[in-house]
Amino acid sequence: MLPAFPIRPLLALFAVAAASAVAQTSDATWSFAVSGDSRNCGDFVIPAIASSVRAQHDAFYWHLGDFRWMSNPDQDLLAMQPAGKELAMDEYHRIAWDDFLTHQMASFGTFPVFLGRGNHETVAPMTREGYIEKFSAFLDRPEIAAQRQADGPGAAPIGPWYHWTHNGVDFITLDNASKNEFSDEQLKWLRGVLDRDLEPGSGIHTIVAGMHEALPHSKGAEHAMDDWELGERTGDLAYNWFYDAQAAGKHVYLIASHSHYYSPNIFSTPYWKQHSNRVVPGLIIGSAGARRYALPRHADKSAKTHIYGYVQGLVQPDGQIDFKLHELSEQDLVKSRWPNAPLAAIHECYVNNAD
C-alpha cells in the first residue's frame, strides 16, 4: 500500500496556477541537452556530444545514467588499452568509473554536466553509497547545493535524486535505477518539490523530470518501470502528480533513457489516453554510446534507432520547450576522438554496435 502523501485536490491546483501567473520568464530562448546510456562506446560518442553542445551554446548537458557496462568490459575502453594488454574483470571494475570520468566527463571541461543514476551504476561492486562518493562533485554542483539551501528542511541530502532551477524551469532528477524505487523517501521529497513549484509566486512555469527508466505504460514499456511491481505502482503515482501539475497550468516534460534509441511522444498510449484528458509530453533518448536496440512495435513514427546523439530542448520565453534530435555522424566521432582512440574501433562502434 502506498503511503498517504498530501495531494492537493485538482481544483486547488488550478487556483494555485492562476495565482502563479507571474512566474519568471526569460526574455530570450535558451537551450539544454540531454541523453543517456553511454556504456559500450561512450568514450567515442560523449566527446562528440560535448563538442556539439558547446558549439550550440546549450546551458548544460544532462546524462540520465548507465555510464559503463560493468557486466563485461566496454569495447571502447578495451580498444584504448595498450597493445597486447588483457583486462581481467576485477581490473576492469577497478578502472571503469575512472574511465568514465577521464574519457567522457573530461570532454566537457568546465561546461556544466548533471548526472542521473542508471541500473548499470548498481552492478556490484558499486553500491548506492559508492555512487554518491564517486560522483559527489556532480551530485553537489553549485546549482544543486544552492537549491538544497533554498529548499530548507524539505531538501534531499546529497544523493541520486535532486533538482535545480534555471530561468523559471525546475529540472528534477529522479532515481529509478533499482527495484526499491521509488522509495517512500524519494516520493515524499518529490511531492514537496512539486508543492513548492505550485505555490503562488514560485517563479516556476515549467517542470522537466529526467530519470533513467521511463514511467509506466509508455511506448517503451517493455524496458521501463513496468518491469517490477513497486516500480509500476509508484511510477503511476509520479506520473499522475506530473499530470496534475500540467493540469494546473505548468509546462511539464518527462525524459528517460534506458532503452537505446530515440522515441518521442512516449505517453501517447491507449492506457494514458484512457486515464487523462491530455497526456504528459515525454521522450526516450538512450543514444549516447550503448548497444542500440530495435524499436518497439508501437514506437512513434518519428522514432529512430541505430543512431548516436542527444536531444536539445529549446526553452521558449513562456516556458514551453521544443525538443530536437541531434544525430552524430561517424566523422563527428572521429573529429572529437581521444588521441589513443583507434579509428577502426570508432568505425566498429558506429556501424555494428547494435542488435
Explain what this protein looks like in three dimensions:
34% of the residues lie in helices and 15% in strands. It is an alpha/beta fold and 355 residues long. The chain has a single domain, classed as 4-Layer Sandwich (Purple Acid Phosphatase, chain A, domain 2), CATH 3.60.21. It has a six-stranded mixed sheet with strand order 4-5-6-7-9-8. It has a five-stranded mixed sheet with strand order 3-2-1-10-11. Strand 1, helix 2 and strand 2 form a beta-alpha-beta unit. Helix 8 (184-197) packs parallel to helix 9. The protein is globular, with a radius of gyration of 20 Å.
Features:
about 350 residues, alpha/beta, Purple Acid Phosphatase, chain A, domain 2, 6-stranded mixed β-sheet, 12 helices, disordered N terminus
Strand and helix layout:
Elements: H1 10-19, E1 30-35, H2 42-55, E2 61-63, H3 75-79, H4 89-103, E3 113-115, H5 128-134, H6 136-139, H7 142-151, E4 162-166, E5 169-173, H8 184-197, E6 206-210, H9 229-247, E7 251-256, E8 262-264, H10 270-275, E9 282-285, E10 309-315, E11 321-327, H11 330-335, H12 343-352
Parallel strand pairs: 1-2, 2-3, 5-6, 6-7, 7-9
Antiparallel strand pairs: 1-10, 4-5, 8-9, 10-11
Helix pairs in contact: 8-9
Provide a short characterization of the protein structure.
This protein has 12 helices and 11 strands. The chain is α/β, with parallel strands linked by helices and 355 residues long.
